[in-house]
Amino acid sequence: MKPCRVWLLTAVLAPGLGWAHAFLQHAAPAVGTRVSVAPTRLRLWFSERLEAAFSRVEVVDAHGRSVAAGPLHPAADPEELVIPLQQLTPGVYRVRWKAVSVDTHVTRGSFTFTVDR
Amino acid sequence: MSGLPPIWLTALRVLTIAGSLLPLGGWAMWLLSQPAVAAHDRLWGRLRQQTGAASGLALVAGVGWLAAVSVQLAGAPPALGTVSAQWSAVLWQTAFGRAWMLRCAGLFSLLMLAVPRRRPRPVLAWLGLAAAALAAASLSLASHAAAASQRWRLFADLAHVLAAALWLGALPLLAAMLYGDGAEPARAQRVIRRFSRMGVVCVAVLAFSGGVNASPLGLSAAVWWGSGYGRMVLVKIALFSAMLGLAAYNRWRLTPCLAGTEARAAMQALRRSIGAELLLGAVILMVVGMLGATMPPHTAG
Fold first, then answer.
1. Where would a tag sit more exposed on chain B, N or C end, judged by fewer CB atoms within 10 A?
2. How distant is the Cα of A103 from the closest Cα of chain B, in angstroms?
3. Contact B143 A54 (CB under 8 A)
4. Which residue has the higher pLDDT, B127 or A72?
5. B281/A21 CB distance under 8 A
6. Residue A60 and residue A94 in contact, taking contact as beta carbons nearer than 8 Å
7. How far apart are CA B299 and CA B278, in angstroms?
8. Does any domain span residue A13?
9. Is residue A96 assigned to a domain?
10. In the prediction, which pLDDT does A93 show?
11. What CATH code is carried by the domain that includes residue A97?
């Protein structure tokens, strides 16, 4: 048996080779919603367990100015990211997130929410 | 969403996985074969080669994998002088890093155990088995199953990894008994029968845990036939089934002949059959390579 064939066979049957990704499941404030009271923190829940040390969340206002960015607050739920927010003034805010799942795959996304007057 | 994984990252990952899986079955096979082939020093030489090559490859590829993952997580290559800080953060603050260190501990232990030319005492052989199990199991700790919400998927993946490692890693030693001038049919038959008992358990565990791992795909025909990922999994299952068919042929048709008058012919047939299994395995590798770059349909939304 040639050694290279053994390597091939070994790699073939290695489980867990499928690359999957952490997707945003829901958020608070929720995606695309309007809130009457400015939130004091932003919470994001994903479809997989995350590496908080390498995940990032940034919130920018309508002018593109960053109003909140990491470090992330530790969350009891390994699938959740939490970031504190300063007192937000009324307006539209965009959330940009980068999630690193435990299998080291990186996903990115963004959404908006609005703080009403 | 990130793009497809770069081919070189996939290659490093596959090499690390292959090198980490292979020793376990080798050491298990060594322990299984002991009473039957106590005088078969060539087998220990083969296990030393297998352990050294596999562990060395996994360690070297693993360093490359760590470097690649560090860059991937940080989003950019580290500036000069910050490599150690970046690697340290990955090693201590991620499941991947902790699994990487466990794997290195197992692989280094295996390298040390494979240094002596004399056959190991039983306690050292069991230690080798434990170190190999550690190296293999570490693969699950930062796998997709480890990232899943349901913890039972991690345990299913661990079982899958260990069963695959036991089965596949045993093949080279099994082959060593069928090749070369020292190949002895009756001796090979005794060991193959022991291997078969382990193999039956491994196949059962592989089938069950494989089903568990695939369970997120559900039973919808649209998912299996309507997505590239599902079709590739079906192809992989078909190829794997063919390999199992060959293994069954080896076990129930050819192995009994090793004790008869056609023992030499049976050994030749076994060699061909193993070659065919390996060819199927190579095709499966290509399928797995494509699977690795394809989004599972259940998360495509």
1. C
2. 5
3. no
4. B127
5. no
6. yes
7. 32
8. no
9. yes
10. 95
11. 2.60.40.1220
Contact between B23 and B110 (Cβ < 8 Å): yes
- In angstroms, the first-to-last Cα distance of chain B is 12
Identify the H or E element spanning B92: helix B83-93
The answer, as to whether pTM is greater than 0.90, is no
Closest CA to A2 of B157, B281, B229, B266: B281
Place of tokens 């994984």: B5
Backbone angles phi, psi at B98, to 5 degrees: -65, -40
Taking CA atoms, B172 is separated from A29, B71, B133, B201, in Å, by 57, 36, 17, 19
Q: How far is A33 from chain B (nearest CA, A)?
A: 20
Q: Tell if the CB–CB gap between A19 and B292 is shorter than 8 Å.
A: yes
- Is there a contact between A13 and B22 if contact means CB atoms under 8 Å apart? no
Minimal CA–CA distance to B283: which of A14, A9, A19, A10? A9
Nearest to B178, CA basis, from B273, B244, B93, B105:
B273
Give chain A's domain count. 1
The beta-carbon neighbor of B149 closest among A17, A18, A48 is: A48
- In the A/B pair of chains, how many CB contacts fall below 8 A? 172
> What whole-number distance in Å separates Cα of residue B298 and Cα of residue B220?
11
**For residue B61, is pLDDT > 90?**
yes
* Assigned domain for A7 exists: no
Looking at residue A50, the DSSP 8-state letter turns out to be B
Spatial CB neighbours of B25, under 8 Å, sequence gap ≥ 6: B165, B166, B167, B168, B169, B170, B171, B173
Q: Name the range with the highest mean pLDDT among A14-18, B61-65, B81-85.
A: B61-65
- pLDDT tens digits, B12-34: 887 888 899 889 999 998 898 87
User: Looking at residues A73-99, what average pLDDT do you find?
Assistant: 89
- Residue A4 falls within a domain, yes or no? no
Q: CB–CB of B161 and A49 under 8 A?
A: no
A92 lies in which domain range?
19-115
